[in-house]
Q: What sequence folds into this?
């Protein structure tokens, strides 16, 4: 199974079920066998319902409390910031378009330098979390790594089940 067909299934509104034929509904059912964090991230990305966000934050916070010896409240604020970045990856200036049209000119977005991605500095992250220190930076990096690994493992597991 290709990554493209999994991506299409995750964004599909066609839930047709037909015996002997693999449709998007079948692909999504296979994805249900993955890890908990990956499944929650996929659900949250598609629905943005707050109950998924709270569970994701609690899972991430629990993991970084132990690893970085942060207080529970600080770990939850750090995980919330990481989830905010996951949910809003596009540049706020150009909306992810990478360039803007001004009259007859195409201008590369200066805020994201043409990447289309929102750029958060460690200073911005620290200010939003409300504290400073390299432990926060390391915890934030671990949150992003945990989310990427969980989502990747979830989709990989689903593709193996569908082969």
A:
């Amino acid at each position: 199974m290709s990554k493209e067909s999994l991506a299409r299934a995750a964004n599909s509104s066609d839930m047709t079920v037909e015996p002997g034929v693999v449709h998007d509904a079948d692909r999504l059912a296979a994805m249900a066998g993955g890890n908990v964090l990956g499944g929650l991230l996929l659900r949250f990305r598609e629905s943005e319902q707050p109950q998924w966000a709270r569970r994701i934050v609690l899972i991430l916070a629990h993991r970084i409390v132990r690893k970085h010896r942060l207080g529970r409240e600080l770990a939850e604020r750090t995980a919330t910031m990481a989830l905010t970045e996951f949910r809003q990856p596009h540049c706020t200036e150009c909306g992810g378009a990478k360039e803007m049209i001004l009259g007859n000119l195409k201008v590369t977005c200066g805020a994201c330098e043409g990447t289309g991605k929102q750029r958060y500095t460690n200073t911005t992250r620290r200010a939003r979390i409300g504290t400073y220190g390299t432990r926060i930076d390391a915890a934030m990096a671990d949150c992003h790594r945990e989310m990427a690994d969980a989502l990747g493992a979830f989709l990989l597991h689903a593709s193996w089940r569908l082969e």
Q: What stands out?
A: The chain has a mean pLDDT of 77. Residues 83 and 151 are 13 Å apart (CA to CA).
